[in-house]
Specification:
The structure holds two protein chains of two kinds. A two-stranded antiparallel ribbon of chain A has the order 1-2. By secondary structure, chain A is an all-alpha fold. Chain A has a domain of about 220 residues. By secondary structure, chain B is of the alpha/beta class. Chain B has two domains: about 220 residues, Rossmann fold; about 150 residues, Rossmann fold (3-Layer(aba) Sandwich), CATH 3.40.50. In chain B, strand 8, helix 6 and strand 9 form a beta-alpha-beta unit. In chain B, helix 2 packs parallel to helix 12 and helix 8 runs parallel beside helix 9. The longest helix of chain B is centred in the first third of the chain and has 18 residues. Chain B starts with a helix and ends in a 6-residue tail after the last strand. The chains are: A mainly alpha, B alpha/beta. At the A-B interface, helix 2, strand 1, helix 10 and helix 11 of A face helix 7, helix 8 and helix 9 of B.
Chain lengths: ~300, ~425
């Protein structure tokens, strides 16, 4: 009988792991959207996106620490960060596109790709200059209590709720935007065939600009939520977040918006359950093992049948 | 393109010149002391005070004289007056945020290639010493570390099988250190945990030489003295957060999480995620790699308050006042730099500087092998916190082990730890 008791499933714990997976997965998905949207439109893997996310986090830290020093209530500083940081990231992303990627629009695919890596290095050095080389603590603004009450079997905090509350509406809004608005329709048309879209009278440059704006803004929201829940800012944080997000985008089928979300959630699940049942050190290896397995059987990703071979 | 062949010849000549250039010419009246420490990144706070300590020792022991119209520090070695120059090398890069193997190799080669360098003070990270010691050992250049605690660097039969032999190509030791080692620190931490009633322990390490090593010593001694070791995991030091790991550990309901690692390998993030996962009653303990101001900066004082304990192979600065030597050291440090030593390793930098000067004096000549032998032969040294000697491995016989805790937003002395090693 004891044997049975030992091996019985602890459903509360499974639910707990599910929550951890969801937290991480949604964050990654939000960053992955920036990769996948840009790729869908201009077929560029924007390697600077992870570091854009890092710069957004630096700005969040500056706003929140500055605001708290002025004596503003935490809610005000959070609201301010949620407005300013996405604007900053969107503007920066658009600026980089106009200054660096746009002149290379008709160059061989490798040229903008290498430029993106260059931009990533520039961003990292800006971050290094901004916050210095060490990890910086981001003030803990969200209450740590268990929402389900003290002593409940599952631990759910405001941090998790904040992630869901910010990311889900954004994803719904994005889906609506792409599916039902004129600009969204123009985006899909440009993704399908830029030349035909131009011939149909679509201002392709404007569409590309809008894509960079939206992708950057999503990264900005991601960085604010990340700061509020992980509470650490470092100039190197963009690398791993960007790598996971890129992997998520490829897993789901790069260029495919629901695919990026699915890929992010899948990475969250691998990470949450892998840490429990395989071991924390093995998590990165597991993530990439799954990536390889998926790409062997579905080279275009889980949902990526629509997009044919690119790059 | 007539320019091209000319240019090629020029390049080839430049290359030949660069290759053929002999080692630096020796300056007869000059002795150099270099240190190699991580001067960029989050260990900067610690190493600033180490360098200050070294400077203070040199200032005190080497009288200022005017040589060729310039004021220089001088030292009498074997009846001859030498100018003493100290160079502060950095073994970290801004991009890495901590020491790198390339930078440490560079520093060791630079010191080796300069015939005036007689003493190499360093390193801060045991992993770095593993790289530079073989390079410098071939030249019998004396190395004195203010902070390395990995036991395998000096002691046979505690680390890997061929340690420390593999670091000594010349067959003779050239490395000594002024702090106690992890085979004391790990067990002392385990006993401290037991004394505080923290019986159920989960152990984490950062998968590096130092962190894994000290966690091993904690674990094996902990089992011996009756701690319940709930589990052991290595973390990925590049990961940004550990919430999944923490919810797993939380289920085991530990009294203590022991982290074998440093601030640079995410000590702060582990503390944060531990508290964020709801383990508010659980304490955390780390070795001296987490004992620095940067740890509090990265985790936030509120998270660590009364919750984070660190062990240290020396005396904490707020405890120095209890010994006459310590009081004198704090006073002269304050007189020179305008503030008391803020970090714990200042004292050990100072001791390294004094050992370096004494080794030079005892050697009686400007000769690397002689200085090296003289340094390792130092016995009954009148140290700041007491009289001590180097043993045959180059380890100090003085074992001050201290336990500190975060209180009021800073590390304060909590307990002198008993030394019952191995």
């Amino acid at each position: 009988m004891t044997l049975l008791a030992d091996t019985s499933f602890d459903w509360f714990h499974i639910a707990q792991l599910g929550i951890e997976s969801l937290r991480f997965g949604l964050l990654i998905a939000l960053i992955a959207l920036g990769y996948t949207m840009v790729y869908g439109i201009v077929e560029l893997i924007n390697f600077a996106h992870g570091d854009l996310f890092m710069l957004g986090s630096c700005l969040s830290l500056t706003i929140v620490v500055g605001g708290l020093a002025e004596g503003w209530p935490p809610a005000v500083t959070i609201a301010l960060a949620l407005v300013l940081v996405p604007l900053f990231c969107a503007g920066l992303n658009l600026g980089v596109d106009r200054a660096v990627y746009k002149p290379l629009r008709n160059a061989p695919k490798l040229a903008p790709l290498v430029s993106a890596i260059g931009v990533s290095f520039v961003f990292q050095n800006v971050g290094l200059f901004w916050e210095g080389p060490q990890d910086v603590n981001f003030p803990d603004l969200l209450p740590p209590e268990n929402v389900l009450g003290e002593g409940a079997n599952v631990y759910l905090t405001w941090k998790t709720i904040a992630i869901v509350a910010v990311t889900l509406p954004l994803m719904v809004a994005l889906t609506y935007f792409v599916k039902f608005t004129t600009l969204g329709k123009a985006m899909r048309a440009t993704a399908q065939n830029p030349i035909a879209a131009r011939l149909m009278g679509i201002d392709v440059d404007r569409v590309i600009g809008a894509t960079f704006l939206i992708g950057g803004a999503l990264g900005g929201f991601g960085s604010v939520v990340y700061c509020l829940t992980v509470n650490t800012v470092s100039y190197q944080m963009g690398f791993q977040a960007g790598l996971y997000a890129f992997t998520a985008a490829v897993l789901g089928g790069i260029g495919n918006i629901p695919g990026a979300v699915l890929g992010g959630l899948l990475i969250g699940v691998i990470r949450g359950f892998g840490s429990e049942y395989v071991g924390e050190t093995w998590v990165p290896a597991l993530v990439f093992a799954v990536l390889i397995a998926v790409l062997v059987f579905r080279p275009s990703g889980l949902l990526g049948s629509r997009v044919k071979e690119k790059v | 393109m007539r320019f091209l062949p000319l240019f090629t010849i020029f390049l080839a000549a430049a290359l030949a010149f660069a290759v053929n250039q002999p080692g630096k010419r020796s300056d007869d009246g000059l002795i150099k002391i270099v240190s190699s420490l991580p001067r960029t990144g989050s260990a900067r706070g610690q190493t600033d005070t180490i360098v200050d300590g070294i400077r203070l020792a040199i200032e005190e022991l080497c009288p200022k004289k005017i040589v060729n119209g310039v004021i220089v520090q001088t030292l009498e070695v074997g009846g001859k007056t030498y100018r003493i120059e100290y160079t502060d090398l950095d073994d970290a890069t801004a991009a890495a945020g901590q020491w790198t193997a390339e930078q440490e190799t560079d520093n060791a080669k630079k010191a080796k290639g300069d015939p005036d360098v007689m003493v190499y003070i360093g390193t801060y990270n045991s992993g770095a010493t593993k790289i530079s010691m073989p390079i410098l050992n071939a030249e019998r250049l004396l190395m004195i570390s203010p902070a390395n605690t990995s036991p395998g660097l000096t002691k046979p039969n505690v680390g890997e099988r061929d340690e420390p032999k593999r670091y000594r190509p010349s067959g003779e030791p050239n490395f000594c250190r002024v702090v106690a080692t992890d085979d004391f620190q790990g067990p002392a931490g385990a006993e401290w945990a037991r004394d505080m009633g923290l019986k159920r322990v989960f152990i984490l390490d950062d998968n590096e030489v130092y962190g894994k090593g000290v966690a091993d010593f904690f674990e094996s001694h902990g089992r011996k003295i009756g701690l319940t070791i709930l589990g052991r995991e290595s973390i990925d030091a590049k990961a940004q957060e550990f919430s999944a790991l923490m919810s797993k550990i939380k289920r085991m309901n530990p009294d203590l999480i022991y982290f074998g690692g440093t601030t640079q390998t995410k000590g702060g993030q582990i503390a944060k995620d531990m508290v964020a996962s709801g383990m508010t009653e659980t304490k955390m303990m780390g070795p001296d790699g987490c004992y620095e101001g940067a740890m509090i900066e990265s985790a936030g004082a509120a998270v660590l308050e009364n919750r984070f304990f660190a062990t240290f192979c020396g005396l904490s600065p707020d405890k120095l006042d209890t010994t006459p030597g310590g009081r004198r050291f704090v006073a002269s440090y304050k007189a020179k730099f305008g503030k008391p030593p803020s970090e714990a390793y200042a004292l050990y930098g100072y001791e390294c500087g004094r050992i370096a000067i004494l080794a030079l004096q005892n050697a009686g000549k400007k000769d690397r092998a002689a200085v090296c032998r003289a340094g390792l032969a130092i016995r009954d040294f009148d140290g700041v916190t007491g009289r001590w000697s180097f043993d045959e491995n180059g380890d100090t016989t003085l074992k001050d082990l201290t336990g500190v805790v975060v209180r009021g937003g800073e590390f304060v002395f909590s307990k002198s730890l008993a030394v019952t090693a191995k």
